[in-house]
Design brief:
CATH topology: Thiol Ester Dehydrase, Chain A
Shape: elongated
CATH superfamily: Hotdog Thioesterase
Strand content: 25-35%
Distance between the termini: 19 Å
Radius of gyration: 17 Å
Order of helices and strands: EHHHEEEEE
């Protein structure tokens, strides 16, 4: 495993694993995210509405789930500005129960590729991210491209 602190960035190679990250998402988090994003869709706070549209319960905002998965990468590389690109496909919702525990989002990542970026010798790594909730993948094709520190 590799981590941001004390890492020999010149030794980062395909197959290296990032330290896993577990995050809890609560209904309070959904309320805060709704306020920050302006996304007040009731499927993110009302059990009645979620059930009416066929969902098993209130679901986390997809973009919140994506942002939390991105935290795995920024924590590892140590600088959010090092992220050159980041993309995911939403495959399953994260169901957030109405309790104090919330939903557990389990994140892991692996260096999928490393290549030279430009003439200054900096290297770029593709990080393949896995995000799971309740044992199932919730983001597909999740990957970030980051400029590695010198």
């Amino acid at each position: 495993m590799v981590s941001a602190s004390g890492t020999d960035w010149s030794a980062i190679a395909k197959g290296d694993e990032l330290a896993p990250l577990q995050l809890r998402i609560t209904r309070a988090d959904l309320v805060r995210y709704a306020g920050a994003s302006g996304d007040f869709n009731p499927i993110h706070w009302s059990d009645r509405t979620a059930a009416a549209v066929g969902l098993p319960g209130v679901i986390a905002h997809g973009m919140l789930t994506m942002a939390l998965a991105g935290r795995l990468v920024t924590r590892w590389v140590g600088d959010p500005a090092a992220v050159r690109s980041y993309s995911v496909r939403f495959t399953r919702p994260v169901i957030v129960p109405d309790d104090d525990t919330g939903a557990l989002l389990e994140l892991s990542g692996k260096v999928g590729d490393v290549h030279a970026a430009d003439s200054d010798g900096r290297r770029v790594a593709r990080i393949d991210i896995t995000a799971r909730f309740d044992g199932k993948t919730v983001l597909g094709r999740a990957a970030a491209e980051v400029v590695l520190p010198k």
